[in-house]
Amino acid sequence: MRGRYRFTCGLFGFSFLILLMPTISAANEAGKKLALQGGEGVQPCSSCHGAQGGGNAAAGWPRLAGLNADYMVQQLNALANGTRSNPLMAPIASSLSEQQRKDVAEYFANLTPPTTPPGGDVDQKILKRGKVLAQRGDWQQGIPACTSCHGLKGQGVGAAFPSIAGQPAMYLQNQIKAWQSGSRQNDPNGLMASVAKRLSDEDSQAVTAWFASLPAEPSKSDQ
Ligand code: HEC
Ligand code: HEC
Q1: Furthest CA-CA distance within the chain
Q2: How many helices (H) and strands (E) are present in the chain, helices listed first?
Q3: CATH code of the domain made up of 124-212
Q4: Local confidence band at 222 (pLDDT 50, 70, 90 cut-offs)
Q5: How confident is the model over 126-142, as pLDDT tens digits?
Q6: pLDDT 10s digits, 101-125
Q7: Binding-site residue positions for heme c
Q8: Ligand 1 centroid distance, CA of 126 (Å)
Q9: Whether the CB of 158 sits within 6 Å of ligand 2
């Protein structure tokens, strides 16, 4: 009896997997198509975020390759509902359906991020200050270590704390400014807004330069 039960269950599980497989690859195909060719009224993501999703450091556009898929969906939702505003990205996010957001986020999450960090021409003294802020914070200013939430290498932790290593410095600074001015309000419990509001312009420049000098590491959805 038990043997037959196990066999039936095994068979059921196996057929379930076979049934599921085309669904998974169809989702990735749809995500890939959106990313590289765009969709109805939607520009290809690659035209701004790069063919490999590596971002555009000079323009301050973020890397998407290797970011957590659920985090990206949350950001697309925020950009669409206005709790995060950006004139370039908001209209694109709004025109994506819920399914398209999932498909395209899944596609970029599975791409390998570039191994060379965007970096930039930054004074060693500034980088040194950035590293201290990132790893230890500045208690007199009430700034906690960024790595306590974003991971020891800035690689991100799960869907809540994004990877910030290997992102263009200008992009990271723009986000800090957005929290300071209130144009980005989508962070859970205002966690990031309270950090951003304590950073001076010099410290923001230093800490973002340091994270931009680190190589990106994939932040897998299952972490
Ligand atoms: C016209 C240029 C442009 C195109 C095309 C574009 N994006 Fe963006 N995207 C941006 C900019 C600029 C930002 C940063 C916004 C900011 O500074 O807050 C961004 C941010 C994002 C973010 C947030 C990343 C993070 O780490 O928080 C995601 C996710 C994203 N884009 C996904 C996409 C997807 C998916 C597509 C294609 C369907 C796409 N983008 C097409 C310009 C673009
Ligand atoms: C208490 C936890 C915490 C600390 C400490 C913290 N962050 Fe964050 N940070 C977050 C959360 C949560 C988010 C995601 C917000 C969201 O969901 O939109 C975030 C997002 C960000 C983003 C936006 C990334 C993107 O692509 O969307 C940047 C940039 C950032 N943090 C920089 C920093 C820097 C620099 C420091 C240190 C000075 C720091 N953070 C310290 C919690 C934290």
Answers
A1: 73
A2: 10, 0
A3: 1.10.760.10
A4: very low
A5: 999 999 999 999 999 99
A6: 999 999 999 999 999 999 888 999 9
A7: 45, 48-49, 89, 146, 149-150, 192
A8: 28
A9: no
